[in-house]
Amino acid sequence: MTGYAQARKEEDGWAVRVSVKSVNHRFLDLKLRMPDGFDFYELRLRQMVRERIHRGHLDVHVHIEPGTAAPVQVNKEIAKAYLHAAEVLRQETSAAASVDVVSLLRLPGVISGLSGAVPETEEEQERLALVLEGCLREALAKLDDMRRAEGKHLVEELRERLARISGLTEEVRGLVVTLRPAFARRLEARLKELLGGTSIEPARLAQEAALLAERSDISEELDRLRSHLQQFTKLLDGAGELGKKLDFLLQEMHREANTLLSKTPGVENEALAITGLALEIKAEIEKLREQVQNIE
């Protein structure tokens, strides 16, 4: 499920900012970006994320800087080197522009102490780890709140689609009872064509029509589809990790819809109507499958 959250903390001489962005994904795909020199915290933070998030493409950006009270040091040698290079370039190109102090301080390597300072002792590393974990925990909590709000709207839409599939399924069930006479008419016409107009014994015709109807019976598929819909609704009413379970149910529902289509002969009005309804059911199931990717 999509969402974005950010948290900031300034504690124990460190200023930390963590941003978390999630988009739909079938499994957990975690990308964690740490500043250079702080990679030894990555495994610890990854574990925290995995304990809270189980599905989705997740981008986590961690920014670490010393706090506002940290000393700022100017690397004069690097600054002089920049100035010398600028002066040489000015003379060679006859450019009139000069380097001002503010622009000089922004050049890489001129200022140290604002970033890149890695704690040296184990005690300092542990203190920073606690600040990082607290900031990440806050960001994930905000992300959960955003995802939960979005989830409420998603569940409402899922229920609407389930109701739509249920209604279509019952329409198919109502048409099934009309298929046997349709099978009889089709069978009679086909036999007359093959027999050259010879009369057909009614009992024999009824028997063959019944066998054809039995082979094309979709009652079991409709019953299973109804059961899957009930299980889907029950899962939505529950809690916990639902995404993979709903995925499985949708696969089964998709299979039943395909069977409805394969068993429905499309030569009579009744059969054509069932085929149309089955196609609508299949389309709704596909939309459900897309939306379920948002559910953890």
Please provide a written account of the structure:
This protein has three domains: 3-69 and 121-139, 2-Layer Sandwich (Ribosomal Protein S5, domain 2); 73-112, no CATH class; 147-292. 62% of the residues lie in helices and 14% in strands. It has nine helices and six strands; from the N terminus they run E-E-E-H-E-E-H-H-E-H-H-H-H-H-H. The chain has helices at 42-52, 76-93, 101-105, 122-176, 179-195, 202-215, 219-237, 243-263, 269-292, and strands spanning 3-11, 14-23, 28-33, 56-66, 73-74, 111-112. The longest helix has 55 residues, at 122-176. The radius of gyration is 34 Å and the shape is elongated.
Largest β sheet strand count, sense and barrel closure = 4 strands, mixed
Q: Which class of secondary structure composition applies to the elements?
A: alpha+beta
Could you tell me how far the N terminus lies from the C terminus, measured between alpha carbons in angstroms? 8 Å
The poorly predicted ranges are: none
Helical content (DSSP H or I, runs of 4+): 55-70%
Radius of gyration (CA) equals 34 Å
Identify the strand order in the major beta sheet: 1-2-4-3
Beta-strand content: 5-15%
Query: What sort of overall outline do the alpha carbons produce when their principal axes are compared?
Result: elongated
What's the overall average pLDDT, rounded?
81
- Number of distinct helices: 9
Domains, number: 3
By DSSP, the count of extended strands is 6
The helix/strand series, from N terminus to C terminus, equals EEEHEEHHEHHHHHH
